[in-house]
Amino acid sequence: MSAKAEQMDKATEPERRSMGRLNPSGHVPLYHQIFLILRNRIYGGDLSEGDLVPGEQDLTTEFGVSRITAKRALNELADAGLVVRERGRGTRVVKRPPAPAVTSSIDGWLENISLMGLATKAQVLEFEYVPASDDITLALELEPGTEVQRAVRVRWLDQEPMSYLVTYVPAEIGRQFERSDLDVKPLLHLLERTGVDVSSARQTISATLADSEVAGALSIHAGAPLIEVRRVVCDSRERPVEYIRVLYRPDLYHFEMSMRRVREESGPRWTATTTPSVPADGG
To answer: How much is the pTM?
Structure first.
């Protein structure tokens, strides 16, 4: 069977009878769906260091897939550095999964990863000045056609591509730093270096699927789920100075929210609690 045929492996009748959590009609290949399930078991603690991972026959029985699909899922785990496969001894979880997930409070920005002792780097993929599209014009409160700086980057965590960032900054601000600056400093720091007094932001969090371009940049498959954050950053005069769209791999980035129960005249309700601020990366 060719690699392309394996990737597009469709569920046979036995597979359909016990598909469980797999989606045979989705865009994500079956072997990669199994890989994601097994990876979650490892990161979630269901499978610990040294534990045997279900073998090809076990996965065939559990998910109702072909043996070649099960084998490819295990090979992907090995390629990700999560397991070691030994002939005659099975597949075991390695000592340390390579890339622990970064956790950020849901009411905050991306915390400064360097403070967490994690190795990160950014890679600039695109850098240009373009007329603002209608949605960017609206987000940054600009006149139609105003020039903006557009940059596309990938942020890496422990040698794993973690996030795909697309940022827009008014040209008069963006021209005060160079493309090379974005390779070494977070955009928020560059904005402040130009004299922008960053004061507030509003953001939305949702889910989306990776298109082929994003999938290639993040080393995932097209159709893989992603966390999507859209944020408008404002200065102390409430003037928008940055619009950013970030796509996070959910296995490497988590959001948390602290809540408490309060009682009011209208009845009890949950309210979010504010966590101590941490210097923000800001993309």
So the answer is: 0.62
